[in-house]
């Protein structure tokens, strides 16, 4: 996968949360430690996170936000239209990039291969080099603790940062609540 980042998203019954670390790695060196890889889209109703290069992130976020606008914020319709466009574009589909997008109803992992994946449990998704560490921690914490969603995401990303050399503890988190 990517030697780039860790993004973790959690969709609860009343809240959607996304978090990401701040590390940007270039080869075997840390280039930057406080990058922002998550954002709110479409009138702050959609959360999105990105694993891949920064230039690609801006391009894909803008493209996805255009689909959200044309679909009037309907996340499911926007995801399908965006994935078709991403897959059809000969340059963009070759990007080693993934996105997570969510609101309070849906959560999806997107790739340039045309993948639109809704997590099996419907509530937790992770991408990036530390994604497997973060999702493992999040599933355990969700099952065996009473943490609030925002704390669950933060603690899971901290665990990923302890284990993954491409993930740091400079965690940024965004949420949407009722």
TrEMBL record:
InterPro entries: ATP-dep_Prtase_HsIV_su, Ntn_hydrolases_N, Proteasome_sua/b, Proteasome_suB-type. The active site is at 5. Allosterically activated by HslU binding. GO terms for cellular component: HslUV protease complex; proteasome core complex. One of its GO terms (biological process) is proteolysis involved in protein catabolic process. Keywords: Allosteric enzyme, Cytoplasm, Hydrolase, Metal-binding, Protease, Sodium, Threonine protease. CDD domains: protease_HslV. The keyword Cytoplasm applies. It is found in: Cytoplasm. The keyword Metal-binding applies. Na(+) binds at residues 161, 164, 167. Its EC number is 3.4.25.2. One of its GO terms (molecular function) is threonine-type endopeptidase activity. Its main location: cytoplasm. It catalyses: ATP-dependent cleavage of peptide bonds with broad specificity. A double ring-shaped homohexamer of HslV is capped on each side by a ring-shaped HslU homohexamer. The assembly of the HslU/HslV complex is dependent on binding of ATP. Protease subunit of a proteasome-like degradation complex believed to be a general protein degrading machinery. Belongs to the peptidase T1B family. HslV subfamily. This is ATP-dependent protease subunit HslV.
């Amino acid at each position: 996968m990517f030697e780039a980042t860790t993004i973790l998203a959690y969709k609860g019954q009343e809240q959607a949360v996304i978090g990401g670390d701040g590390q940007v790695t270039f080869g075997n060196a840390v280039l930057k430690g406080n990058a922002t890889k998550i954002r709110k889209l479409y009138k702050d109703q959609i959360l999105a996170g990105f694993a891949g290069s920064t230039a690609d992130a801006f391009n894909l976020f803008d493209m996805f936000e255009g689909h959200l606008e044309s679909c009037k914020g309907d996340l499911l319709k926007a995801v399908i239209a965006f994935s078709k466009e991403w897959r059809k574009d000969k340059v963009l589909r070759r990007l080693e990039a993934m996105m997570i997008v969510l609101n309070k109803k849906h959560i999806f992992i997107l790739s340039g291969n045309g993948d639109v994946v809704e997590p099996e449990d419907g509530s937790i998704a992770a991408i990036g080099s530390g994604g497997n560490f973060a999702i493992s921690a999040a599933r355990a914490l969700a099952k065996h603790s009473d943490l609030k969603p925002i704390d669950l995401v933060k603690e899971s990303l901290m665990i990923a940062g302890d284990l993954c050399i491409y993930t740091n503890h400079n965690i940024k988190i965004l949420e949407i609540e009722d």
